[in-house]
């Protein structure tokens, strides 16, 4: 069974859509390579933000613990 022939939406070239092709199904292998974006896209948190997030997570865990394990009286 032959692979389906698709047309790339970027460069309008025809290509075979193979099962383990990386990238997008509507782009040819040359056009579906990841674009080089800013490598530091991960958000950096300072000490105050980390502490606030940690406290919020602890409060969530405590609330879930109370909901799950409270004794019905």
Automatic annotation (TrEMBL):
<protein>
    <submittedName>
        <fullName>Uncharacterized protein</fullName>
    </submittedName>
</protein>
């Amino acid at each position: 069974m032959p692979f389906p022939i698709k047309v790339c939406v970027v460069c309008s070239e025809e290509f075979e859509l193979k099962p383990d092709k990386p990238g997008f199904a509507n782009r040819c292998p040359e056009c579906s390579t990841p674009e080089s974006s800013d490598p530091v896209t991960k958000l950096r948190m300072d000490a105050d933000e980390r502490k606030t997030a940690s406290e919020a997570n602890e409060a969530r865990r405590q609330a879930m613990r109370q909901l799950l394990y409270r004794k019905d009286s």
